[in-house]
Request: fold
Amino acid sequence: MTRSIAGWKLDSADRATLLGRFPPRYARTIADHVTLRFGTDEHTPLPSATAGEIVGEADDGAGVQALVVQIGDTTKRGDGSHFHVTWSLKPGRAAKESNDVIRALGWRPVEPTVAVRLVPARWKG
Reply:
């Protein structure tokens, strides 16, 4: 059985708008998804939410930039981490480090927040 990730892809028009508002700080732009669960399979239900809000930004100044996403009334993912979009990475850094950066350094609120459309999806990790 192939394991996958369940979550949301960013709506492409919203992604383009966000890239204008939050310029990527590092060489590799990711900026395409919000993870709900790792290690899922084809029987794992996709999330039902279709909207979120960019409420914060985190950057360790050393190669990881992420946007914090509120879905429903929370930014908390349920596993102790936060909903986020890994925005950009310096070479040698990995998307999975976004949660570590948010946990260690916190995040700063963005004003105004930005509504985003989320497309429930499953993809290979």
Remarks:
- Residues 81 and 103 are 7 Å apart (CA to CA).
- The beta strands are 4-10, 28-29, 33-40, 51-59, 64-70, 84-89, 108-123.
- DSSP finds two helices and seven strands in the chain.
- The mean pLDDT is 95.
